Amino acid sequence: MNYKKKELKTYGVLESLHQGLRRYRSVLDEAEACYINAEFSFYNLQFDQADWNANITFRVLEHFTNREICKLEKPTLISKDQNVVYVRDGWGTPQPGFWKRGTYKWEAYIDGALVDEIYFYLNVELTLRNKATQLDNFPLEIYFYVYNEQQYLKAQMGYFAHINDRRAEIVLESGYGVREPGFWQKGNYTVNIVFMDTVIGSFAFNVGDSNVPFSGVWATNSAVLPPITNAPPPAAIAKDKYKLKEIKSYGSLESLFQGNRRYRSVFDESEICYANVEAAFYNILFSEEDWEATILLRAINYHTYAEVCRLEKKMTIAQDQNVVYVRDGWGTPEPGFWKQGTYRWEVTIDGKLLGETYFYIVNNGLLSADDNPYFDLKSIKLFEGPYEGLEMGKRIYLEKFDHKTTRYINVELTLENKLTNMPYMPLEFQVNVYNDSHFLKAYMSVFKHINDQLPKL
User: Fold this and answer.
1) Total domain count for the chain?
2) Are residues 16 and 88 in the same domain?
3) In the listed set 92, 123, 154, which residue is the last one of a domain according to the structure?
4) Which helix (H) or strand (E) holds 169?
5) Beta bridge partner(s), residue 198
6) Does 235 map to a domain?
7) pLDDT per residue over 353-380, tens digit each?
8) What is the distance between the alpha carbons of residues 4 and 7, in angstroms, rounded to a whole number?
9) CA–CA separation, 41 vs 296, rounded Å?
10) What is the C-alpha to C-alpha distance for residues 76 and 81, in angstroms, rounded to an integer?
11) What is the distance, to the nearest Å, from the Cα of residue 39 to the centroid of all Cα atoms in its chain?
12) How far apart are the first and last CA of the chain?
């Protein structure tokens, strides 16, 4: 077999988000549903080995009558460079009206074999305005997004239920965590509640040194904290049993949603306790066999070539691991070990170099909301342009863009440099763009060596 099922999802809005994601939903309203789409993904078991051809078929069936609504054939060339294959298509009309209230099912086939299926549901608008008690069946879908104080996505929970008893009050239960304490660290958290692609409310809670009994009702409001995700991986490097996905550095040991971390490459002496590395690689023997690996993580001083630490990890790579993540770090529980300088994480597997990434320690003081020892933000400007970009004199700055002609929307920041006395400064920015539903539309990561001592950057 050339493939292994990953998942099948449904969505309505055709908009492409960051990394090709969509606004996934399984409950839609007659008044909004134009095209209802399916995204079928599967693991390519010929990854890094050979190209192959597949005939992908989508079918939509009405659940109760089994009537076929549509059948979509998609002959597809699966490249050996595709670790996970995504196939998307949909059916409907440019304006609402085609899709009527009911329960439907997407089916996905490869070369005539049924691989996966998923149900989706259409409601009338009245059921969304406290009139669901008039219906015998009301499919309810709610999402909860939990953010920490730095606006990183800590947890995501989905709730789906068939409400078929005409109840006036619906009690939802959902949770996120791990079997042993440690995932939820001290701090303030905010929860956004999303229904039908719309944030309908939010509330906050705190994790501290003790439990405090609940005494009242949490009021929701319209305050929204947008999620932060990670940059797309760099180009991969081919290996026999594995292929590099990415190597990233981070400081905080906190685990976020889906095991992500707060990835950074620039740290201050006064904050950095442990300098950590995450090495990710594709398992070429996925779904075939287990294998053993000796993974070596080395931190090296870039200027002196001195080895700061050497961390060896013997691992069994299971055949059900499509992407393998290896994490470790070096330092002390309190700041002081890491000193100003440039360092490099080097990762090897069985003696062969997998990849490397640089990180930087500076000594300019902590950044806060009231004090930025690095720079003052003087201006933010937006302009449209081609893939190659535009020179300074050719940029036309806009606050509203024409969707018919916009190619790339660029951000220009002007910073007042407070460190002109320093011959060198590593500058790192992360820019996140969100749409009006608070979905991540784009992510940009900028790193630059500032070595000309100019007052403006």
Assistant:
1) 4
2) yes
3) 123
4) none
5) 195
6) no
7) 999 999 999 998 888 878 888 888 889 9
8) 10
9) 33
10) 14
11) 17
12) 54
